[in-house]
Write a structure and sequence with these properties.
Length: 564
């Protein structure tokens, strides 16, 4: 059997599936991670099985071992990794790392062993650093991992040089291993092994010195099974007492997996969710689109407060009733708590959350809940778009215009594009919701590439606030050079007179970034790259942040002589 494997050590220039021979006693599946030798030095590196082919080639290197008990990625997710590689110019393995939670990643651990014979003692007199490193390794029993050596030697760079020199001289050997960053959390559970009558009969004849054994058995007779930690806490017994009862055959001890999930407090609901006429019209249209052979993409366009979240909840409820899963993405972590409370009130424990504020263990456990189907609704920020949801019915991106849906670290993906790809592959509806859609989304909606649904007014029937835009250049022409327009000052005076309050919001501190002519509205540009020059009030200069050009800020407009 020959396996095509994407290795983590390959850079983008040499990134491709590499062929490896699978051992006779090794059972591999597509999507599993393996450890393989790579490069001239056959350094052990992590890889992912992309495909398996029948054949035999003795010249190929052999897969060392499998790192996963079962495949971590489905065929569709591997296709998504290939899409990310071609679209965003990253390696195959970088794409896979973005799709898996940090708790599933591996860290490399090198173990060093002294070679037999001890010939190094006579040959490293001229290399004191090498001699001290090997003497330390000998004191540790002739075998130690890199972390133990680093803890004993303050100068890590000198230690690495010494170990590298000793490896070249074959005075030591090294073996690389991969350890999971986060494992499954378990707890010890005590279960009553005898009948309740037999256990109580035994407890009643115990002496006063064995009062703790009696208390443990009485509690187990009531509950049947309980964690050892809680059993000791409520009875005051020690673990030695529990182990003694295990030896006597009155209880059994086992390990039980525990999920590291934060408790979500459900919001208080006034009653069943009822849609308005406008919301119901949009919901019915989205349902018809969801049931179509190709669901495609839709834009839900509604002003702030028009009730887009209510439509989301109804659509998710419909997906769950059909046995499908759903995904809801938000641009910021700060938006997830209130949304989680609302979703928990409607859908209970079937909600899982994925975002970077969770610990590695919590994120891994939430990922497991989605993967095994225990949770059907994935909520989170942009990285939640890779959630292992099976049988997706809908992918919702709330506030789709936000720039935070684009990753700024490798791979630099757009969650919106990834969601559209997954929707097309899994025949799920992709719903983009916004009160201020991005230009490209609105263009595609109006041109017919996306379906457009509008929510006209606010849910509570209130009107939108009146907005006035004041051109301060006209104020300058009228002789008002203050940062406050006459209209604003008059409005503030009216509020004070009527006993009302006023909020003034400034979008930035300090001076404006740019100079603009009041008359011709021209702005100084860089003579080398034609970008607008940025004004720096500290030194009164204009600077280009692209090429570094700098010049003094002119007193008047160089085009028309007007004020700047």
């Amino acid at each position: 059997m020959i396996a095509k494997i994407a290795v983590s050590a390959a850079t983008y220039a040499i990134d491709k599936p590499y062929s490896y021979r699978v051992g006779e006693n090794m059972a591999l599946a597509v999507g599993q991670r393996v450890m393989v030798p790579f490069g001239r030095g056959n350094r052990r590196t992590e890889g992912v099985v992309l495909s398996l082919e029948v054949g035999e080639d003795p010249s190929l290197k052999t897969v060392d071992r499998c790192l996963d008990d079962e495949p971590m990625l489905t065929g569709t997710m591997l296709q998504l990794a290939a899409f990310l590689r071609e679209r965003y110019f990253c390696t195959f393995f970088e794409a896979i790392r973005a799709m898996l939670p940090a708790g599933l990643w591996f860290r490399s651990q090198d173990t060093y062993t002294l070679a037999e014979g001890g010939s190094w003692k006579e040959k490293c007199d001229r290399h004191p650093d090498v001699l001290s490193a090997l003497m330390l390794l000998e004191d540790l029993g002739g075998r130690a991992d890199g972390e133990a050596l680093k803890a004993a030697v303050p100068d890590g760079d000198a230690l690495q040089e010494a170990l590298r020199y000793a490896l070249n001289k074959k005075w030591i050997t090294t073996q690389s291993d991969f350890l999971r960053r986060t494992g499954d959390k378990t707890e010890k559970v005590a279960t009553l092994a005898a009948s309740a009558e037999e256990a109580m009969e035994f407890a009643s004849h115990r002496p006063k010195s064995a009062a703790m054994q009696k208390a443990v058995l009485e509690l187990l007779c009531q509950l049947g099974s309980v964690s050892v930690k809680e059993l000791c806490y409520y009875t005051g017994a020690s673990t030695a007492t529990v182990k003694r009862l295990e030896k006597l055959g009155y209880l059994t001890l086992s390990q039980r997996e525990v999920l590291r999930c934060r408790e979500i407090e459900p919001a208080k609901l006034d009653g069943p969710l009822v849609l308005t006429e406008t919301q119901q019209t949009a919901f019915d249209g989205l349902c018809r689109q969801m049931d179509a052979p190709k669901a495609g993409v839709a834009l839900l366009y509604g002003v702030t407060g028009s009730g887009k979240t209510s439509v989301y909840l109804k659509l998710i409820e419909r997906c769950l009733s059909q046995g499908k899963s759903a995904m809801l993405l938000v641009p910021e972590i700060a938006l997830t708590p209130q949304l989680l409370s609302l979703l928990a009130a409607h859908f209970g424990d079937s909600v899982a959350v994925l975002h970077s504020s969770l610990s590695a263990g919590e994120r891994y456990d939430q990922w497991k809940r989605l993967r095994c189907g225990e949770a059907k609704v994935a909520v989170g920020t942009r990285s939640a778009v890779f959630a292992p949801c099976e049988n997706l019915g809908i992918l919702i991106l709330d506030e789709e215009q936000e720039h935070s849906y684009k990753s700024e670290t490798a791979p630099r993906y757009s969650a919106k594009e990834v969601a559209i790809w997954r929707g097309a592959k899994e025949n799920a509806l992709v719903l983009l919701g916004s009160a201020t859609p991005s230009v490209e989304t609105m263009y595609r909606a109006k041109s017919g590439l996306y379906r457009l649904y509008r929510l006209g007014g606010r849910y509570n029937g209130k009107g939108l606030p009146r907005v006035e835009i004041v051109d301060l250049r006209e104020e300058l022409k009228n002789g008002n050079d203050s940062p406050f327009s006459d209209f604003l000052l008059d409005s503030i005076r009216d509020n004070v007179k009527n006993g009302k309050q006023t909020i003034l919001f400034l979008n930035r501190r300090g001076a404006s970034r740019a100079l603009v002519c009041v008359d011709c509205r021209e702005s100084p540009e860089c003579p080398r790259c034609t970008n607008r020059l940025t004004y720096h009030s500290a030194n009164g200069r204009l600077m280009c942040h692209y090429c570094g050009h700098s010049q003094p800020a002119p007193a008047r407009c160089p085009h028309c002589g007007g004020p700047l």
